[in-house]
Every structure is written in structure tokens, then in C-alpha cells.
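Hi F.,

I've been meaning to write this up properly since the lab meeting, where we talked about keeping a consistent format for the predictions we share between groups. The idea is simple: the sequence comes first, exactly as it goes in, then the C-alpha cells exactly as they come out, then a line or two of notes. No screenshots and no reformatting. I'm using this chain as the first example so we have something concrete to point to.
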Amino acid sequence: MEFIRYKLTHSQTATPRDHQKLITITTSTVKDRGNGTTRSVQRDSIIYVPTSYSDASNSASAAAVPLVIVLHGATGTANYCVHEMKWSEKADAEHFMVVYPNGSRPYPSKPPGMATNAQTWNDGSGRFESEVSGVDDVSFIRQLIWQLQNGYRIDEKRIYVTGMSNGASMAMRCGLELSDMIAAIAPCAGALWTTKMMTGGDNNNRKNASVRGISVLYVTGYNDTMNPLNGGYPKMLVSTEKMRNSSPKPPVSQTIAALVKILGASSTGSS
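Output, unedited:
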């Protein structure tokens, strides 16, 4: 596979390697906290193309490949996901494409930083700068899928979204608002914050008419203090203090029940 580096506004946010490419997408206008201006922001994503995929795969007769979208957690980066989550190795083994997009940050003109310029997703919780600045991450993910479909043979019936923590919550939001494009989601240690918006204000209502039923795999840890099973404020591993600027999370059972109701799915037990 030919190695291609696409033009980047901030190339330090993503580092491509073998069988990886970079793409840049211009998002909706957001406010830059650094200078107070409102402007369009470019965000880059790392694409991993499996070794079995060749340029001939773009021909009309070639079999299309599934696509997995991997979303980092709050303060994370696409690079972190590439190195820590090992989805690229799985893509080679199972023949699918992976894309690791970057969230938005308060100072788009500066590189991401955990403490002062954290990248996040607008998951509907109101916890992060991305929502305060009006970042439309649902549209960003939709544009990302369109751009990949234009450049590769993507199986439109096998597009999946997964993520960790804030990325998991964004994956759930995508599952509800992009159900016309996504076949399944696999959130890990996240909460669903957008049920009222999707049900017209009543969490007990049946799914919104625009939401198509999709499959869901929800993963969390019994002892995860950042995603407490019974809900409440996340706690740092080294402290019992509430996380600064955090919001109480709903119980995990409430998140799962809301997904079942909105998506019209059935629920199965776990071990």
C-alpha cells in the first residue's frame, strides 16, 4: 500500500505509520477560547488500511470492507488509540478498515494537552468545552464516513462505532443520531446523556421515529470508579474527590435501559 500523507493543519496531533493515512475534515464553526474568534476548524483522523486491501479493492467488482470508527476518551488523541487499543492489528486479522478521529479542543491553533487543551467529544452531557463551543460532532462523524466512502470500498451495512469513556458516550450518541449509517456500537465505560433529546423529553417514550434499531455491545468494569455502576460522580483512581467540572453519571442500568427503549432492542444478561 502506498503511503500518503494528507495535508494537516496540526500534524503533531497524528503520526501515520505503515498502512496508515491521514485525512483532514473541516468541521462546523466553533469559538476559539484563545482569541475569541469563531471560525471553521480542521480536524485530522488516522486511517488504518488493512494489508489485504489494495488499490484493486476500489474496483466495482471488489468486495467492500467493514469500517470501525474508534473514539478516544476525554483528554485522549487518535495517536493514543492507535498505540493502546490495538484495533489495527485486529483489522489486519479480520480484513476491515479502522479510522481514529481526533475530538475538538478549546484552543484549536495549539496542540492538544491533557491539562490545558484537552480534546473531547460533544456527547450531550454539557461537561466539556466541545459542547460549550457548539461543536457538532455528529455531523463531523457523518462527514468522516462520507469521505471514507468516497475514497474506499466501504460496506455501508457494516459501519461500526466504538469508544472509551467520553468516546463511549459519543458512540452512543452516534448510534441514536446516525442510525441511518451505523450498524452497531460498542461503547466502553460511558453514559448515555441524550435520551431526553431523542425521545422528545420523556425517557419512558418509545424510540424517536428517526432512530433505526441497531445492535449494541456495552462494556464496563464492576470496579471502575470513573464509570460507577450505580451512577454518581466519577472519582479519580488516586482520590475520592469529585472530578473537577464533572457531572453525575446515570446508573449503568439506566443507560442500558434507555438504549433498549429508544432503539427498540432486546436486552441480554452479562457475566
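Notes:
The radius of gyration is 18 Å.
The beta strands are 20-26, 30-31, 38-39, 42-48, 65-71, 97-101, 154-164, 184-188, 215-216.

If this format works for you, I'll send the rest the same way.

G.
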